[in-house]
Structure prediction request, 118 residues.
Amino acid sequence: MSVFALNRLLTSSSAPVFLIVDGHAIHKAKLVGDFVAIQEGRLQLFYLPPYAPHPNPDELVWGHVKKQVSRQILQSQNDLKFLVLSALRRLRKLPYIVAGFFRHPTCRYAIRLWPYFL
Prediction:
């Protein structure tokens, strides 16, 4: 996660952004922390426990994408990249499916972070 990526994320949202991240060193880097601080609440990072594949909504996103991609016949690595990006773009346009990931029993903790999912 780069500061450039965070800035793009903020640019595309008029509401505050709540980002659930793992404990990777880049997420805790001083540069990222400084960037979050100057956003004055527009961006908040929430850290998962050190190893928590089950309560991570990202795992549900990738599971959804893998299910869609696995139904296709691939001829090349470029086909795979195209299908994965297409599935992610489709998912971005389906907020009710994304909200459903947060309603999953292992991810319900995140609902209290963002009441718009209720």
Observations:
- The mean pLDDT is 84.
